[in-house]
Design brief:
By secondary structure, this protein is α+β, with helices and mostly antiparallel strands. The longest helix is centred in the middle third of the chain and has 20 residues. The chain starts with 6 loop residues before the first strand and ends with a helix. α8 packs parallel to α10 and α9 packs across α10. A five-stranded antiparallel beta sheet has the order 2-3-1-4-5. The chain has a five-stranded mixed beta sheet with strand order 10-9-8-11-12, with helices on both faces. Strands 6-7 form a two-stranded antiparallel ribbon. β6 and β7 form a beta hairpin. The protein has ten helices and twelve strands.
């Protein structure tokens, strides 16, 4: 079976568990503490990234690898304060801001402008809780970010009290799906033939997001897939603030064996239904509310 061309990959990590370090050194060379370099194919790279996100716990990880774009490279981050932003097809790394004061009483010495900015930030955070978020989910035909296809997209508009509206679309495909995907999702090419073209689905999603705060599960998978397709279809990426519930769960839930959405739902006593984009959004919404109670 053809595995694809090998490309340069650089991974940096902090607080890396010994078992994870052992997994990485099977494929990459550790040239400095927490810095791994090597040439691997896309499938191995994506599987290693999933392994990192699942096992690094409170540690931080960044991956940079060769990619067919203007810069000839792509980024992925996990648990880091740095944020990667797309600027007309060019990826920029945003330096993290200094920690903000969280107490209601502002320390002496702040200017009136600083006080207004801090008060505005608190009002926006409160507005998120009252006016809602966009809960986002996708179904794909695999984890390969270069070759994978989006099969289904769903979004739920909800606040802390209720789900206000929901939206989902199937995306047409030009070939049959892998058997393992059909088995899990019950999606087939025949079912997807009743869907719409991906560019139309992306424009609909962009209208729904409209700058709202997006909540997803595993940003390095969900948002990365979508941002790639927005770029390929020359559509402006609509995402602003994105909350990754996986990162939130790792910080707030300790007594659990793994951090899949299904495991978290079981942990909180939330029933799971068929593995599809819209039901997953509904589960994500319920899990997210539970995480915010901790």
């Amino acid at each position: 079976m053809k595995m694809g061309a090998k490309k340069m990959v650089v991974i940096t990590m902090s607080s890396c568990p010994p078992k994870l370090r052992g997994d990485l050194t099977k494929w990459l060379i550790e040239i400095h503490t927490g810095v791994y370099v090597g040439q691997i194919n896309a499938k191995v790279r994506d599987l290693l990234w999933v392994r990192i996100c699942d096992n690094i716990r409170d540690g931080q990880a960044t991956m940079v690898y060769s990619f067919a774009n203007e810069q000839h490279l792509e980024f992925r981050t996990h648990n880091t304060a740095w944020r990667i932003r797309d600027f007309d097809g060019i990826k920029l790394a945003m330096r993290p801001k200094a920690p903000a004061q969280t107490s209601e009483a502002l320390p002496k010495g702040f200017s009136s402008v600083s006080k207004r900015l801090m008060a505005g930030r608190r009002r926006r955070e409160s507005a998120d809780m009252e006016h809602g978020w966009i809960f986002l989910g996708i179904e794909t035909d695999g984890l390969d970010f270069e070759k994978g296809k989006i099969l289904e997209i769903a979004a739920i508009v909800a606040n802390k009290k209720q789900i206000e509206s929901s939206w989902s679309v199937l995306v047409r495909q030009n070939k049959a799906l892998p058997s393992e995907i059909v088995e899990v999702s019950h999606l087939t090419k025949e079912v997807l033939d009743g869907g719409i073209e991906l560019d139309i689905a992306l424009r609909q999603l962009s209208d729904i997001v409209k700058g709202r705060t997006v909540v997803c599960f595993n940003k390095s998978y969900c948002i990365a897939f979508l941002e790639r397709e927005f770029r390929r279809n020359s559509i402006e990426i609509p995402f602003g603030k994105v909350i990754d519930s996986l990162i939130l769960a790792r910080k707030r839930v300790r007594d659990i064996n793994d951090y899949t959405l299904e495991s978290l739902a079981e942990y909180f006593g939330i029933s799971c239904v068929q593995h599809r984009a819209q039901p997953d959004c509904e589960i994500l919404y319920k899990v997210f509310l539970k995480l915010n109670e901790i």
